[in-house]
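Take a record.
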Amino acid sequence: MRNILIMVMLVGSAGIFLLFWLSPPEVFLTKPAISEEELPKADSYMLNISMLNYNKEGKKSSSVLASEARHFNSGNRLEMENPNMVSYGKQPAEQPWHMSANKGNILKGGEKAIFTGSVYAWQQATASNKKELHTNKLILYPDTHIAETTSPVTIITEQGKTTGTGMWADLNAEIFKLLANVKGIHRAP
């Protein structure tokens, strides 16, 4: 009886040894459980991109430079790192608006652009007249040149400096509406 018990233990030990010996190492490494839905995979990756967009009349509507971009076919979304966008006016004589940020998203094939992280927008109206806008998040509709944010915003012009929380702006008509907590300094000419 004792010999049978020893024999069973030896066969069991040999079986366990062979199981470990013949199994690939990946079986014993623990992998974090990540579902496909948690990590969206980009359909294409691009480095140092330069993109020029035209409107329906064939005129330049905007140009974009970015250090890195990822395109997702679902939702037709382009995510960018360090984007610099130039949004041209409807008339060639109008000065374009320039926008830069830490990150940017262009949605629906260019219908909407969202800039986040140290957003800086400016327009050089004349050699001495520069309009500047600073915020943490800015949503731009390039076709209509409408910009909006719910974040704190600072607008600096030749005439002064205005701060507030939340903004709606028509960049073509140069209409800026600050929505709350508005404070300003106006310089007399």
Q: What stands out?
A: Helices lie at 2-22.
